[in-house]
Amino acid sequence: MAPEFSTVDRTTFSGLATGLDTSALVQSLISFERRPVTFLEDRRTQIESQRTKFRELSSKLLVLRDAARALDNRIASLSQGAFQEEFLAYRAETSDEKVVRARATGAASPGVYDLTVDRLATVQREISQAFASNSDPLSGVSQGDTLTIDFSDAAAQDIAVTVGAGGVSLLQLRDAINLDAENGGRIQAEILFDGSQYRLILSGTETGVANAFSVLGSGGLAPASLIDASLSQAATDAQITVLNVPVTSSSNTIEGAFPGLTFDLLAASDPGPEKLTVSLDQEALVDALQDFVDAYNDVASFIGGQFSVDAEGKAKGALFNSPLLRSIQGRLQNLASARYLTGQAPLSPFSSLSDIGIRFDRKGQLTLDSEKVGAALAQDVQAVRSLLGGDASLDLPATAGVEGDGVATAIARALAPLVQFGDGLLALQDQNLGQQIESLDDQIKRFEKRLESREETLLAQFSRLEATVSALQSQSAYLTSVAIFRPVR
């Protein structure tokens, strides 16, 4: 929106002497002289519209770039292969998901495996003897008695409670443990009421042997006096057996033991083993390709809309005459329709998107044939992967790595200098348009001030005219009256 500037008080008045509508005359003159300002405001509106559209384009290109990156198997800079698989997606299923669930990444290997959950990881839990009250001082406990919780982690400080004068109740003991500065949330103390008696429960908050603890004490708080050993539960590590190899973990979520797989243990096998099936997730792969197609079509539709005309042949889009937009359109069309042979085996079945079921329609939009894409993935998923990501080992630094590009890599590389934050082409274009808007604002402001001064001058001139005419009229009226009453000789 163009800036608004204050003007002089345009009090409407008619010339009493001349009979002229002075205000209307001044406004007509100012409106005529304001035509250059109107031109500047129209130009500002056009540039602001262009800036808005370029920003919209930038957002859409970012989505397309990210969709291409999800397929290209390269790091963000495109200078080398990705550290983790980006395109291939696998699905892991178990025969009994009430016992164990599995998740897979692109690093997994397809196959069927036997897996047995031998035991779950547990927290350590110590339960006290039963007491009739939770608020009365514990019998047999005297001032100076201590209760110490010693962590297996040598770096951790012990929790130590010393009984003061008046003894200590279960509630006080619970609060002293929970609020101890050395606790750090590693031990949770609670009170259990079984309907008639109370017990203190000490539970570790993390599973595994590494998070075990020892209860020490003196006097009435010595373990033999305080703890009911028959109800205690030791901390244990989880263990599974896969490929006849035992695997242990302090957590019931096991990751890193088997490439690309994460196991969530829920129960011990009874009797086991469970069947673990790892297979290619074609649905996820098709979804990733569809995201790319949708992002491309969104950009293509936007650009096409900028180049459309109405029934009279007048441009509809604010960027109709943009050579940059024409360049982007042509570049994307060429990259999406090109053939990619570098880095593929001589007999590779796929060298273009159309070979795997992604084609252009008559409107320049990409269409995805899910059945044909599925067939291509089933035929040779590695060839599809190579078509999209190319071969990073063939990148030539002297040519910015384009020799090993696949279609997704090529599109991501082409978009990088456009959407780069700060000094990308579209960022620089936005800065340039912003500077033009600021310049027009300054010009409009200066012109408005000149018009304000001009309006004041015209009003002053008309005021003087009215005063002069009024004075002449008064003089004329006086002379007329003198002539009428002059005596006849």
List keywords for this structure.
489 residues; 5-stranded antiparallel sheet; 3-stranded antiparallel sheet; 3 domains; Immunoglobulin-like; 40% helix; 16 strands; alpha+beta
Summarize the structure in words.
The protein folds into three domains: 45-84 and 283-419, no CATH class; 90-121 and 238-280, no CATH class; 125-231, Sandwich (Immunoglobulin-like), CATH 2.60.40. Helices cover 40% and strands 17% of the residues. It has helices at residues 22-33, 35-69, 170-178, 223-226, 282-306, 323-337, 370-389, 407-419, 425-485, and strands at residues 90-94, 100-104, 111-119, 125-127, 146-151, 159-162, 187-193, 198-204, 213-217, 238-242, 245-249, 253-258, 261-265, 274-280, 358-360, 366-368. The strands form five sheets. Strands 1-14-3-10-11 form a five-stranded antiparallel sheet, with no helix packed on it. A three-stranded antiparallel sheet has the order 2-13-12, with no helix packed on it. Helix 1 packs antiparallel against helix 9, helix 2 (35-69) packs antiparallel against helix 5 (282-306) and helix 2 (35-69) packs antiparallel against helix 8.
